[in-house]
Write a structure and sequence with these properties.
heterodimer, A: alpha+beta, Beta-Lactamase, Heat Shock Protein 90, 3 domains, 5-stranded antiparallel sheet, 14 helices, 23 strands, elongated, B: alpha/beta, Transcription Regulator spoIIAA, 4-stranded parallel sheet, 4 strands, Serine/threonine protein phosphatase (chain A), PPM-type-like_dom_sf (chain A), hydrolase (chain A), HATPase_C_sf (chain A), GAF-like_dom_sf (chain A)
């Protein structure tokens, strides 16, 4: 730009140009219909630059051709397509530079064909590309300066500025449209995810023998698990993983889940169930998609499980410290229907006080310090968290491989089936904070009332449990240090055994003494109340990984 | 004056109860605590009452537990404090005594 003597005084034409740029930028920013705005802008530009005619070309996605989207002047060539490489417009676009052709007769790239078709006589051309960084959007082309002259280098600068502002507006509008589309899609995905979540069984109390957890990698999941109550107290359960991820997998999952729900009550056993689902999927399935699935039936009264496996990760049976894989099974569902036509083999498993774990490959293939976790890794994590009640145990194992906020590579689902015949009346984990105490009292009251104990006995035991929990909250964790505690209630013959486990630093039992009651002081009462109510109170050696284990025993007499 | 305690006085609520009682005792007020609506009270709640009682003795003011509910009485008995506190059958009796 020329050096101006008095910098506060802009030349009249430059001021006009700035006004035009400002006005167009404002129009673009306000506009919802960007192409209509470009048409209006093109008229402004043509008038300002004294062009006889003008065209706006935009690059068409897919074909890569330049298509005329707006015109100004005596001829309208809207819709005209310029295949790659033809004419001055393509030259401006491919060089990404403004082209000034003062006399078309001297330029071999000038395509006279359009003039022949329209009857318009093109003498000179000024063409500026519309581009933002490396993205080429199209070009603005002006024809013939009014009054017979030619465009000059000032015109080049003005059109460049106008084109730059138009290109930015175009990109903004496109990004806004794409964002709106993405938002609509993500709303739909969230809705689908909600519907899927509603298909998973509701979480049961910790004492229920079957618990599951599902973490979808994206909003929707290709995994599922379910539990269906059968006559006679038996429980049918299943875990499945649909090949692929995203919406297709989610739809096939929904179908498989529905089939399981409706067939589980009608068919006898998991083998027949997998056979029926396989034939249904083979008949109506989509090519190349398959489902791996384990189905089973637990009889809580005997602790026995009937199990059938179609291509799924072998379940793990944990009895005490011993773990074994249940390897038997057929290929996935929906692949080779003939294999299931002959029947699907079942395994008969005695839980013997232990637990059966089922999981999708989202767990075994999860990242474990740069390596896949594998089934040995799963065993390691289960051992590490064995003390936790089932729902918290599943959450803790999953949290090890999928910390909150981490992006999952695959859906992750886990199911645990426990033999609870000798199980506690109650086994719950609570954060060791004062706010948990009301919840502890409610849960213990519920379990004791269900045992038919008298209200006065229940009241005393609640007080003792509360006081013991307070000692954990106030003394074991000692204020700033915080953690969890597990309350466990068992009935052994005519005794009620209450175990309170924490994960704090070991407490010296010698320091936990009842206060001298002749000394009337606030505090120190809790331990006295516990000993007054309970028949035996003792600190036991806690299991490895825990902090303190307090056992309180109350004889129930003839209750 | 009459202070009414209601519901479950546990470790979560007892700090607020203690603060309320201490403020009154600090002003050497005669206080009757209505315990008729107490469904549950633990050692931390009892400790607040003990502390208020001790302060009243020091200040020569009165501190009476009135209309003690059955659950609260049970804890007082277990702590052998039923013989320590001044107890009244009703709030009216507590105010008169």
């Amino acid at each position: 730009m020329a050096v101006v003597e008095n910098p506060t005084q802009l030349p009249a034409t430059l001021a006009d140009d700035l006004d035009l740029i400002a006005e167009m930028t404002g129009d673009f920013a306000r506009s919802y219909d960007i192409e209509e705005t470009l048409r209006v802008g093109l008229a402004h530009i043509s008038t300002r630059m004294e062009a006889e005619a003008a065209s706006l070309f935009l690059m068409e996605e897919g074909s890569g051709e330049l298509v005329c989207r707006a015109c100004f002047g005596p001829t309208d060539v809207t819709g005209l397509r310029l295949p790659n490489g033809q004419g001055i417009v393509w030259r401006a676009v491919s060089r990404n530079a403004t082209e000034l052709v003062q006399d078309t007769r001297d330029d071999p790239d000038f395509a006279a064909r359009v003039d022949d078709d329209t009857g318009f006589r093109t003498r000179s051309i000024l063409c500026a590309p519309l581009s933002v960084r490396d993205e080429r959007l199209g070009a603005i082309e002006l024809f013939n300066k009014k009054g017979g002259g030619s465009f000059d280098s000032d015109d080049v600068r003005v059109l460049q500025a106008l084109a730059a502002s138009a290109a930015l507006a175009l990109i903004n509008a496109r990004q806004a449209a794409a964002m709106a589309e993405r938002q609509a899609l993500s709303r739909e995905l969230a809705l689908a995810s909600d519907i899927q979540r509603a298909m998973l069984p509701k979480e049961r109390c910790a004492e229920f023998p079957i618990h599951g957890i599902n973490l979808p990698a994206r909003g929707v999941s290709g995994d599922f698990f379910d539990v269906v109550e059968l006559p006679g107290g038996r429980l049918a359960f299943a875990i499945a993983d649909v090949s692929g991820k995203g919406m297709n997998a989610a739809l096939l999952m929904a179908k498989t889940a529905s089939l399981f729900r409706c067939l589980a009550k009608r068919l006898d056993g998991p083998g027949a169930l997998l056979q029926a689902i396989d034939s249904e999927l083979a008949e109506t399935g989509s090519a190349g998609m398959f489902v791996t699935m384990v189905a089973g039936v637990l009889d809580p009264a005997t602790g026995r499980v009937r199990l059938a496996n179609a291509g799924h990760e072998p379940p793990l049976l944990c009895c005490g410290a011993r773990m074994s894989r249940i390897d038997e099974g057929l290929p996935p569902l929906g692949v080779i229907p003939e294999m299931f036509a002959a029947g699907c083999p079942e395994s008969e498993i005695d839980l013997a006080g232990g637990a059966l774990y089922l999981f999708t490959d989202g767990l075994t293939e999860a990242d474990d310090d740069g390596r896949m976790l594998g089934s040995l890794g799963v065993e390691r994590l289960l051992t590490r968290h064995r003390l936790l009640p089932a729902p918290e145990r599943l959450r803790a194992v999953v949290a090890e491989v999928a910390p909150e906020g981490a992006a999952l590579k695959d859906d992750l689902t886990m199911l645990v089936v426990e033999d609870r015949r000798d199980g506690p009346l109650l086994r719950r984990l609570y954060p060791a904070v004062p706010a948990s105490l009301a919840e502890v009292r409610r849960a213990v009251t519920g379990a004791l009332t269900a045992q038919g104990l008298e209200d006065s006995v229940v009241g005393d035991i609640i007080l003792a449990v509360d006081e013991a929990c307070q000692n954990v909250v106030r003394h074991a964790y000692g204020g700033s240090d915080s953690g969890d505690m597990i309350v466990e209630l068992r009935r052994k013959g005519c005794e009620l055994v209450i175990d309170l486990l924490d994960f704090a630093a070991p407490v010296d039992p010698a320091r936990v003494v009842p206060r001298d009651l002749d000394d009337i002081r606030p505090g120190g009462l809790g331990t006295h109340l516990i000993r007054e109510i309970m028949d035996r109170v003792e600190f036991l050696k806690p299991p490895a990984g825990a902090g303190n284990l307090l056992r309180m025993v109350k004889g129930l007499g003839n209750q | 004056m009459v202070v009414t305690l209601e519901g479950e006085i546990d470790l979560q609520r007892s700090p607020a109860v203690r603060k309320q009682l201490m403020e009154l005792m600090f002003d050497s007020r005669d206080v009757v605590v209505d315990l008729s609506g107490v469904a549950y009270i633990d050692s931390s709640g009892i400790a607040s009452l003990v502390e208020a009682y001790q302060m009243a003795r020091k200040n020569n003011s009165r501190f009476v537990l009135a209309a003690v509910s059955q659950p609260a009485m049970r804890v007082l008995q277990l702590a052998r404090l039923d013989k320590v506190f001044a107890l009244a059958e009703t709030v009216a009796a507590g105010l008169k005594a």
